[in-house]
Specification:
heterodimer, A: about 350 residues, alpha/beta, Rossmann fold, 2 domains, 7-stranded mixed sheet, 12 helices, about 40% helix, B: about 170 residues, Pyruvate-ferredoxin Oxidoreductase, domain 3, about 20% strand
Chain lengths: ~350, ~170
């Protein structure tokens, strides 16, 4: 096993991306993810890659579009307001079926909002975000090691399904330091060639055109159906979830990302107090781990509690998955405030009295 | 499990004090989280970090009630003093805090950290002095673990190793 390193989430994601074969990064500064471009600015130069501090977020995502379209492993990162600016580009990338990776270290909003941690971009990340009928594979890591592990496979997944992978973190996850084991440097020769990429390497069997314009309705509908089939197969093959003490639980706490681990501590405290609590923590928030919720809703669980750093976004997918079989209650903080495990415990025990 | 909050002015080395503990935990194969405050409060107000050390894994990195508070300035003491667990530990940098802590259910240690650091000729190392006191009082790690951790963390700037180890020992042996 590799020696452990103490790293911030942001730095660890950047290093894992380089080790996964990322050789192009474009981005524009915004708190709380600035360690990612800072790290990439010197690290990519060491491995023969390219770093661009672009003139805007819009430019950055379109540079990623171009670089990934030419077959490279390209990524960008930002935080909430900056991700909003990238949405047009993300939609075009999805329309053109270009694989890339986008990091969103979410801060509080709306508008310019604040710089403290939040999860208020859940809808934006999981329901499209930009215009048109599209989805991304969205990972919600809860620890620095999980950031590394998910980032390391993100390009492979993006290329398998030909779509952007989003890593949805929050300010806490970007700033927290934990000990991590880093994976080996990927040999670029082991990355499969892309038959569709506009590499400029002589003539292929057919012309290679990257475009998202479909003027004929039947052709665009066929494209929409094709994309949906891809998302459906992703739901079968890529859904990830952590279940903790679910089987005998009376109350299922559910949360994703950093809040997922805060809720896990709450489960432990509740168990010590004699409350049979469990946790469902989606690791992919799109595709959503619906089956875990359906199983729990049909079982012993009496109720669910959706916990999030937003005003009721994540709870919608929980309710859709529980299908009204059991009550789903809500506990959230926002504005950059974060609940402690004890806050969750107090909410549960007060409500149960 | 040990839950620690280190707080003070930006520039007093509160974040690096917490990091030193995090490094020691990693070298000792413990699980650790180091979570800093970030943002406008770091300019002029209080900066702080939450450090949790455990044997296996750490779930929540958020601390509601710390086992120990290290308060390097008055606003930090005021902000966190009531949150410390009953039976916990409060380290007060008495160089900058003249008040006495009005709690009788915790252990309180007053440290003239700036003066001690000045006496050993390293004015910037008041945080390492307090680290020494903390390690002695908490028993979290052996003295030698911290000395080797300081050496590893400063490996790229070896000229700083002796003075920081000296500051740590001055606190440890206070």
């Amino acid at each position: 096993m590799a020696e452990k390193k103490l790293m911030k989430g942001n730095e660890a994601i950047a290093e894992a991306a380089v080790r996964a074969g990322c050789r192009f990064y474009a981005g524009y500064p915004i708190t709380p993810q600035n360690e990612i471009p800072e790290y990439m600015s010197w690290r990519l130069a060491e491995v023969g890659g390219h770093f661009v501090q672009s003139e805007s977020e819009v430019a950055a995502i379109n540079m990623v579009f171009g670089s990934a379209g030419a077959g490279g492993r390209a990524m960008t990162s930002s935080s909430s307001p900056g991700i909003s600016l990238k949405q047009e580009g993300i939609s075009y990338i999805c329309g053109a079926e270009i694989p890339c990776v986008i990091i969103n270290m979410v801060r509080s909003g709306p508008g310019l909002g604040g710089i403290q941690p939040a999860q208020c971009d859940y809808f934006q990340a999981t329901k499209g975000g930009g215009h048109g009928d599209y989805r991304m594979l969205v990972y919600a890591p809860s620890s620095v090691q999980e950031c590394v592990d998910l980032m390391y496979t993100s390009f492979d997944k993006a290329e398998k399904y030909r779509l952007p992978v989003m890593i949805l973190g929050d300010g806490m996850l970007g700033q927290i330091m934990e000990a991590v084991s880093l994976p080996p440097m990927r040999d670029l020769n082991t990355i499969p060639k892309k038959k569709w990429a506009t590499t400029g390497e002589g003539f292929g069997d057919t012309r290679r055109i990257i475009n998202s314009l479909y003027i004929v309705p039947d052709e665009l509908e066929a494209m929409n159906i094709k994309l949906q089939n891809i998302y459906d197969s992703m739901a079968v093959n890529e859904t990830l979830v952590e279940e903790y003490l679910v089987d005998d639980a009376d109350i299922i706490l559910t949360a994703y990302g950093t809040v997922g681990r805060i809720a896990k501590s709450a489960v432990d405290i509740l168990r010590e107090q004699g409350v049979k609590a469990g946790l469902i923590r989606p690791i992919t928030v799109y595709p959503f781990p619906t089956a875990s919720f359906q199983k729990a809703a049909s079982g012993k669980a009496k109720e669910f509690l959706a916990i999030e750093l937003s005003m009721g976004q994540y709870i919608e997918d929980v309710k859709l998955s529980v299908e009204g079989k059991k009550p789903v209650r809500f506990f959230g903080r926002s504005g950059g405030n974060i609940m402690s495990p004890e806050d969750i415990v107090a909410f549960v025990t007060k409500e149960n009295k | 499990m040990e839950k620690l909050i280190v707080a003070g002015f930006g520039g007093q080395g509160v974040l690096s004090l917490g990091q030193m503990i995090a490094y020691a935990a990693m070298y000792e194969d413990k699980a650790v989280t180091w979570l800093p405050s970030y943002g406008p409060e770091m300019r002029g107000g209080t900066a702080n970090c939450s450090v949790i050390v455990d044997d296996v894994s750490v779930a929540s990195p958020i601390i509601a009630n710390p086992d120990c508070l290290i308060a390097m300035n008055k606003p930090s003491l005021d902000k966190f003093v009531d949150k410390v667990k009953k039976g916990g530990l409060i380290l007060v940098n008495s160089s900058l805090i003249s008040d006495k802590v009005a709690r009788d259910d915790v252990t309180i240690i007053y440290i003239d950290a700036n003066e001690i650091a000045h006496k050993i000729g390293n004015d910037k190392a008041s945080n390492l002095v307090v680290l020494g006191v903390y390690i002695k009082a908490s028993g979290l790690f052996e003295k030698d673990v911290m000395l080797s951790t300081i050496a590893k963390v400063f490996a790229a700037k070896p000229k700083f190793i002796p003075s920081n180890q000296a500051a740590f020992l001055a606190g440890y042996e206070m």
